[in-house]
Amino acid sequence: MLMNYQKNVKLSLTKNLDLYYFSLGNNKFFLNFTNKKKYKYFTFPLEISFKKQKNLFSFHSDEKIKSLLNSCVISFAFWLKNNNKNFKRKLLLKGLGFRCFLSEDKLKLNFKLGFSHIITLDIPAYINNVIVEKSHLTLESDDLSNLGNFCKKIKQLRVPDAYKGKGIFYKTDLITLKPVKKN
């Protein structure tokens, strides 16, 4: 006989956030939060059931998928807590002639990184704000994981050099340089 496992989480919903939940087909159980700007959804496996009473969320599952339930509840709590936050990432372009420009229609980033051509990247819809300075690039978004993925894509355009320190990196990154051999 399988034991029933329950996990209670007390979370507060902000005033401009509504909770709707429904199941779609036989695959997933969705929690849908609507915001004034947009909607987001969070998926749970079908084996996890859900109840809500005021600000108390109760999640139920079998004992054998207890670890899956715990990881889903932790990620759900993090997602709910950070749903309305704006996240910011600052990137540095270090190197002679390394520059970043915003296109005239403000939908593309143009990079001059020491190659014979200019590299162009489309700015995704989930990026809310782009601030371009001489050798700094600041990106803002309310989706942390997608912002990190886009920053990683930018960093891969010019990986920091181990000897000279040229490249694209976060402002908070600590770059250690290798010593140069001298004859």
Q: What integer is the average pLDDT?
A: 79
H-E string:
EEEEEEHEEEEEEHE
Query: Percent helix among the residues?
Result: 10-25%
Rg for CA atoms: 22 Å
Strand content: 35-45%
Which sequence of strands runs across the widest sheet?
11-12-7-13
Q: How many structural domains in the coordinates?
A: 2
CATH homologous superfamily caption of the largest domain: Ribosomal protein L6
Q: Whole-Å distance between the termini?
A: 75 Å
**Count of helical stretches:** 2
Count every beta strand, where a strand is a DSSP E run of 2 or more residues: 13
Structural class: alpha+beta
CATH architecture of the largest domain: Alpha-Beta Complex
Would you give an account of this structure?
With 183 residues, the chain is of the alpha+beta class. The chain folds into two domains: 4-81, Alpha-Beta Complex (Outer Surface Protein A, domain 3), CATH 3.90.930; 87-170, Outer Surface Protein A, domain 3. It is built from two helices and 13 strands, in the order E-E-E-E-E-E-H-E-E-E-E-E-E-H-E. The strands form four sheets. It has a four-stranded antiparallel β-sheet with strand order 11-12-7-13, with helices on one face. A hairpin with a 4-residue loop joins strand 3 (28-34) and strand 4. The protein is elongated, with a radius of gyration of 22 Å. The mean pLDDT is 79.
